[in-house]
Amino acid sequence: MLEARGLNVAYGDAPALWDVSLSVGKGELVSVVGPNGAGKTTLVNAIARLLPIRGGSLWLDNTEVTRTHARDMCGRGVAIVPEGRKLFTGMSVEENLEMGCYRAGARRFRAETLERVYGLFPMLRERRMQAAGTLSGGQQLMVAFGRALLARPRLLLFDEPSLGLSPKIVEQVFEVIGAIHAEGVSVLLIEQNAASALALAERAYVMEGGRIVSAGKPAELLAQPHIREAYLGLEQG
User: Fold this and answer.
1) Whole-prediction pTM value?
2) What angle do CA 157, 90, 146 make, to 5 degrees?
3) Is the pLDDT of residue 92 over 50?
4) Domain 1-75+188-237 class?
5) pLDDT above 90 covers what percent of the chain?
């Protein structure tokens, strides 16, 4: 479904990604893990076409989308839950949710998808008229999840969804991601919480210093001493 081939991205003259290649198959959940500064957010923003790609190519459904505008990626069925939520804090919960279905193709299903979102997050129905900025961090993340779902994506990009949340909320977040994937949505999960991300993924990539340094099934990655020690704090037994 999605394939990045040798992506290079830079901020001015400073390279941020070098020769990054990855793929997400239809209906697959793939995680990208790595430390702060590894280039994970740069990668997801490049895939969403929020950053220019300096080299390499990006493909969606066997069509090259390297130079495609971000709004057209949404039209092709790609949505993003960005790092930091990025809500319109003065607008109500429901107004923020409806920002996700501005496309005609998604707008036709507004009522149906909104009910689906409220089914996943009953708290949002209760607070639908409340200003989004008055919610807790975990509740705001649920709004960001719901807004992305209102776009009716086929591929959903998550950028560090657990950042800054309590362990209990983090557990709930990953349960919801699993539920969304179970409905048939392809998922690319960018996450620093390696243990939770690997537990959920079918395949995973490890990033360091703007590069992919390892890839494979979670069990294969967890068998590597460097990954166990660096990302999970586990010593090889």
Assistant:
1) 0.91
2) 30
3) yes
4) alpha beta
5) 74
